[in-house]
Write a structure and sequence with these properties.
Elements lengths: L1 E5 L5 H10 L3 E5 L3 H8 L10 H11 L2 E4 L2 H7 L2 E4 L15 H10 L7 E5 L7 H12 L6 E5 L9 H6 L4 E4 L3 H10 L1 H5 L4 E4 L1 H32 L3 H9 L20 H14 L4 H27 L8 E5 L14 H11 L3 E5 L4 H7 L4 E2 L3 H5 L4 E4 L4 H4 L3 H5 L6 E4 L6 H6 L3 E4 L16 E2 L2 E2 L29
Parallel strand pairs: 1-2, 1-4, 2-3, 4-5, 5-6, 7-8, 9-10, 9-12, 10-11, 12-13, 13-14
Antiparallel strand pairs: 15-16
Helix pairs in contact: 1-3, 10-12, 10-13, 12-13, 13-14
The structure holds uridine-5'-diphosphate-xylopyranose (UDX).
């Protein structure tokens, strides 16, 4: 099919590349000329694993093109996907749909052939029915243009797999013709067995915000339980594992920690509450407001814990921050809980030195006062507290023995609840997390002295061979082994 994708951000660029990869002719359109230049050269303008590998061959083959012209889009497409952003409206909880409105208003008068306009952006329920009338009114004489809504559920970091192998497709359509066009666009996924739910546009719009509100509720729920675990001396990680085996609950979105962020969950919770209130369903506002409030409290609590670990005041301290992206696998720092905590710690007088494998540039642009180190060791040099704020895989492999030699005080707060903290404790760190019982580490030794670039054996003596008494995490045979 001849497809256009209007808006080439985290959603649109991925959608365009994926549609081209399954055989469609695709034109991506965006008003940001710099972004278009990058994409047209087959380069991803942001970090998304696998995106560049899809873009390059598709652009080279000519099946995927990019431009800034709505006239070109209108002449080319039989299916137009609207993928522009719908951020939170300033001064309100509602979503700002002005970019969606503008895209429709610019595109439809330029449509030179019969076409289907397909909204993918997340919008308040009722937007599609309002815009259907706009589309009908703006379509040039002799051209049949119709509107459908087809929400997108991709997650940043796994966006390519989520698009090519979705868990479901939802088509909000008003005619058999629109339904047939969407089935044709997604034919390979449907043939592979992906459930395809054909419904009306309002239901489709609500599926998306409900899914995000449900995920947000799940995350806030486990965070509330983490607080209960804290006071009950129970372990939320084990609890979540046990809950997750229940097929009615499932294991996803039960990671207690710093809460949700990013460009979607929080603003969709608020937009759903705002829309429900407009429609007279005010009870939803109270409930979703609690989900949002629980989430906001995580960030404040993390700052409080950092301050108490630093000895009651952050002023004049040095704080190492591991991770500033809103989650691992992305360079996106929109509404990042990690970045919010780093910025708050800095405002309270700490010198923050951060590391993030992908998001440093985006974070620096928003918070120039934060300093970034090229690696974990550099970020932690001389630190009074280490804050683990985004759970990149590489942080879980950090050697706490080696890191202890570079910090001023071995104190770590794992705000994402994934570090092997028993191991850190065994290496002599004071370790904290949300709602986790951390068993005392074995053989908490004195701070090892650096000797010739290597760490001396705790208690002196020469390195010993590993033995059955070594726990699974032991660096066997290494002179840092402390389990003898
Ligand atoms: C989300 C939805 O998952 C996706 O379907 C929709 O299309 C867009 O919004 P995304 O924002 O990429 O996707 O991230 P997601 O993986 O859902 O995580 C959202 C936030 O929740 C992140 O900040 C993440 O760190 C946090 N989270 C997630 C937790 O705190 N705990 C968890 O167990 C899972």
């Amino acid at each position: 099919m001849r497809i256009t994708v209007i808006g080439t951000g985290y959603l649109g660029a991925v959608h365009a590349a994926c549609m081209a990869s399954i055989g469609h002719e695709v034109l991506g359109v965006d008003s940001d000329a710099d972004k278009i230049t990058e994409l047209a050269a087959g380069r991803a303008p942001f970090y998304e694993p696998g995106l560049a590998d899809l873009l390059r061959p598709a652009v080279r083959s000519g099946r995927l093109r990019f431009g800034t012209s709505f006239a070109e889009a209108g002449a080319f497409g039989e299916l137009h996907f609207i993928c522009v952003g719908t951020p939170q409206l300033a001064g309100s909880y509602a979503a700002d749909v002005s970019a969606v409105d503008a895209a429709v208003e610019r595109l439809v008068p330029r449509c030179a052939r019969d076409c289907l306009i397909v909204g993918k952006s997340t919008v308040p329920v009722g937007t599609a029915s309002r815009l259907a009338a706009v589309v009908a009114g703006l379509a040039p004489a002799g051209v049949t243009a119709e509107l459908a809504w087809n929400p997108e559920f991709l997650r940043e970091g796994t966006a390519i797999a989520d698009t090519l192998h979705p868990e479901r497709l939802v088509a909000g359509v008003s005619s058999a013709r629109a339904d047939a066009a969407l089935r044709q666009a997604y034919a390979p996924m449907i043939e592979a067995g992906t459930p395809y739910i054909s419904t009306d546009p309002s239901t489709a719009e609500l599926v998306k915000v409900s899914a995000n509100a449900f995920l947000a509720t799940k995350v806030s729920f486990i965070n509330v339980i983490a607080d209960v675990c804290d006071v009950a001396d129970a372990d939320v990680a084990t609890l979540a594992q046990a809950l997750g085996y229940d097929s009615r609950i499932g294991p996803q979105a039960l990671g207690a920690g710093l809460g949700f962020g990013g460009g979607c969950l929080a603003k969709d919770v608020r937009a759903l509450a705002a829309r429900a209130e407009e429609l007279g369903a005010s009870d939803a506002v109270a409930f979703l407001g609690t989900v949002d409030a629980v989430n906001a409290a995580r960030r404040r609590r993390a700052v409080d814990i950092a301050r108490s670990m630093a000895g009651g005041s952050l002023r004049g301290t040095r704080v190492a921050v591991l991770g500033v992206a809103f989650k691992p696998g992305t360079d996106d720092v929109r509404d990042s809980p990690a970045l919010a905590v780093a910025a708050a710690v800095s405002l309270q007088g700490a010198e923050v030195r951060a590391h993030d494998p992908r998001a440093a540039a985006n974070a620096r642009a928003l918070h120039p006062q934060l300093r970034f180190a090229p690696d974990v060791t550099g970020a932690c040099e001389g630190a009074d507290v280490v804050l683990h704020l985004t759970e990149w895989d590489e942080y879980q492999d950090v050697d706490p023995w080696a890191l202890r030699a570079v910090v001023r005080e071995p104190r770590v707060f794992d705000a994402r609840n994934v570090l092997p903290l028993e191991r850190w404790r065994a290496a002599g760190w004071t370790a904290r997390a949300f709602g986790r019982r951390i068993r005392p580490g074995r053989a908490e030794g004195p701070r090892p002295a650096a000797a010739g670039g290597r760490l001396a054996p705790v208690g002196g003596g020469s390195p010993r061979p590993p033995g059955p008494q070594c726990p699974s995490w032991c660096l066997r045979g290494d002179e840092r082994c402390e389990c003898w």
